[in-house]
User: Fold this.
Amino acid sequence: MIAGAPGPGQRRGLAREVGVSGVALHGGQAARARLRPAPVGSGRVFTWGDRPPLLAHIDAVEAGAYATLLAGQGWRLRTVEHLLAACAALDIDDVEIAVDGDELPVLDGSAGPWLRALQAAGPVDRPGARPCAHVRQPVTVGGPGRWARLSPGPGLVIAISTRFSHPALGQQQLEIAIDGPRFAQEIADARTFGFLHEVEALRARGLVRGGSLDNAVVYGPDGPINPGGLRWPDEVVRHKLLDVLGDLALLGHPLVGRVEAECPGHSLTHALLRAALAQPGALEIAPPGCTPAPSG
Ligand SMILES: [Zn+2]
Assistant:
């Protein structure tokens, strides 16, 4: 059971602390995180020992190759996007994520275990301003074959298309109006994916050292080699949509508008957010349900 959206003007946090543990996808080491209640208005904040906290915000993004990497305050944290997607889908505004290393656990490669951990931590409405980022003007980044666009709309709708040369993948597309129940049923459990022929090259670069058939869909020449196969025939585009939602959460406010992307990756979504923030009038931070101010 998933609680509905917070009431107007209400923020949402957690009632209790919950721990999650697993392996780091890229580093391969054991990784743990504790999801903790945080003060109203604090946002989604990562902490590691006595280091200064790191806010999940686009300004803290250092890189977006294969995973979203946050950096600042003298430390770095990798692979934050699946947890942030679950926070966004459940409207969790304020949470401390206490980690014990430089990467979050990958779990099964999806956002499902994060979603269930957040639910176990008891999402709870609390008084406090909860403004949204309303898209007021279109914003586009990228070019032919690989682009992303924001445009005005009454709620958050994400429309994604992917295209891969692998014959088992081809072209996939999906459009969904994001809310907690739909995310839980249709998106959260879609796993990250990769190609068998790329694994050795990625490992040589220090990536996917913790990757296995337990935490990723791996495509061989004839299709997925995971014994259980796919969770959906179009699991790849569902995971891409999950990643886009997680990266959009780096805005720090719930987004109200339509998001479209062709062949998105983390860097493209980060570029879209930066372009929206840099374009005067593209976003308006205002209460939910707020209609545009008259122009002229
Ligand atoms: Zn992902």
